[in-house]
Structure formats: C-alpha cells, structure tokens
Specification:
The chain has 237 residues and is α/β, with parallel strands linked by helices. The protein contains nine helices and six strands, in the order βαβααβααβαββααα. 35% of the residues lie in helices and 13% in strands. The radius of gyration is 19 Å and the shape is globular. Bound molecules: iron/sulfur cluster (2 copies). One iron/sulfur cluster (SF4) binds next to strand 6 and helix 7.
C-alpha cells in the first residue's frame, strides 16, 4: 500500500492553470484505505474543477491505477474523453500518476501527496517508483518522478553532469532522469514547466499528519506497533 493525503484544493487548481479541459481519474486501491479517494473524492474534484471554470471531459474510478494493464483496458473504452482533455487529474499515489503518464499522451496532474509508510514500499507490477516524499511534484515534471529517476533525487535539475550520450554521471548504465523529464515536457509542449522552481523538500511532510491518524491505514499501523511493543516486553522470570 502507498498511503496518500489529499493536496490542498488551491494547489490543485493552481497546477491546472491554463488547462481548459480535464479528465479526472481516481484509484480505488490504496486511497480507499487512506480515505482519500473513491466516489466522494471524484464528486468533489468534479465540482472543484467546474467551479474553477474548467470543462470535465469525463471521469472514471479504477481499482488499481498502478496496474497499467487495467488502466489500458479501462481507458481504452473511453479514449475520446481522454483525447479531448489537455490534462488528467489523477487521485492516486505517485506510482499511479506516473503509470497514467506513461500510458496516455496527456499531462498527469497529482491530486494527492504520497507519504511514507515507515520504509515499507507497496508492490506493483510496473517500473514506476515513488519514494513517498510527501510533496508530489509530478505536475511540473510531465508525470516523471525526479526523486526516483535522478540518481541524486534532485527536485530541480539538471545537475550539469549528464553525459553526451544522455547517461547519468553517477551511474553510466542509467539514463539521466532529468533529461527524461526534459524530453517528456518537450513532447507535451510544456517546456515552461522545466523552469518551475520546486520548493526544497521538507522531510516532515513524509509523515502522516495528526488530522489523518484516524484512517484505516493508521489503525493497521498502530496495531502492528502494539504487537511489536508487546513482543519486545521483557518476560518475567
Ligand atoms: S514526487 Fe516522486 S517520490 Fe514524491 S510523491 Fe511524487 S512520485 Fe512519489
Ligand atoms: S546526471 Fe541526471 S540523473 Fe544523474 S544526477 Fe545529474 S541530473 Fe540526476
């Protein structure tokens, strides 16, 4: 499971500046356990975007957005609604947002931040990775994660060390993540996003906030911690 928290509505609207037509896609996997997604989220986002003067070309909920095979089947049936949109607002963890960006030639915009689950990484069948940084910047990077694709996890790139062949200076057998982001933005016609300054990472944002310590995900974590504490109690002789 990749836990999520909703981004503030004004941040979502700001990310969609210049977008007139948008499609909304929500995940019914992890966001259900975190109480961030599902039909209520979809309804709220539709109202938010329409209230901001945007046309919603369509919307859908998918069980596991991180599974590209499922995404392909579902979106294949509504391809016209996707084609009409300039961007897709995605309510899922960072893996799901990246999967959508890799599947569809449209700009994916994250509606959620993926937060840390105490070093546990979810399992998913694709190559997309999310480091649960709590400050998702995929709206500015064309849907490619700089934290996991850049060897230095730079959220403002490029570092200047990229090889002539496009390889990373840290490891020549991998392609420079920021070059990939540049190429993605160019393909999307969004090169201005490359000049957007992303705020330095605030590592406190990786952790769950007090406001969300009532969710199903939190209850599971507390139960696990209590079990651990009990196991570590010294036994009486
Ligand atoms: S920027 Fe990357 S690491 Fe951070 S939440 Fe988004 S996908 Fe995950
Ligand atoms: S060469 Fe690219 S991927 Fe490697 S550290 Fe520099 S910006 Fe990051």
């Amino acid at each position: 499971m990749n836990p999520t928290e909703r981004k503030p509505n004004d941040e979502i609207v700001e990310s969609m500046k210049g977008v007139e037509k948008a499609f909304i896609l929500g995940c019914q996997g992890c966001p259900i356990g975190c109480e961030t997604g599902g039909q209520p989220w979809l309804d709220e986002m539709t109202q938010l975007l329409e209230g901001a003067g945007k046309q919603v070309t369509g919307s859908a909920l998918i069980d596991m957005i991180c599974n590209k095979a499922i995404v392909g089947i579902k979106l294949g049936r509504i391809v016209d609604q996707i084609a009409e949109a300039q961007a897709i607002l995605v309510g899922s963890c960072g893996v799901g947002v990246q999967a959508v960006g890799n599947m569809v030639g449209r700009r994916p915009i994250p509606a959620m931040n993926t937060i840390s689950m105490s070093d546990h990484q979810g399992l998913w069948p694709s190559e997309e990775r999310c480091a649960q940084c709590g400050q998702c910047v995929l709206a500015q990077t064309g849907g490619l994660c700089p934290v996991t694709l850049c060897a230095k996890s730079l959220i403002n790139g490029i570092c200047g060390g990229t090889g002539d062949d496009g390889s990373c200076e840290v490891s020549s057998d991998r392609r420079c993540g920021w070059l990939m982001i540049y190429e993605r933005l160019e393909a999307l016609g969004r090169l201005d996003d490359y000049n957007t300054f992303n705020e330095p990472r605030d590592y406190r944002k990786r952790a769950i906030t007090d406001a969300n310590r009532h969710t199903m995900r939190w209850a599971l974590e507390v139960a696990k911690q209590e079990e651990q504490d009990e196991a570590e109690q010294p036994t009486a002789n």
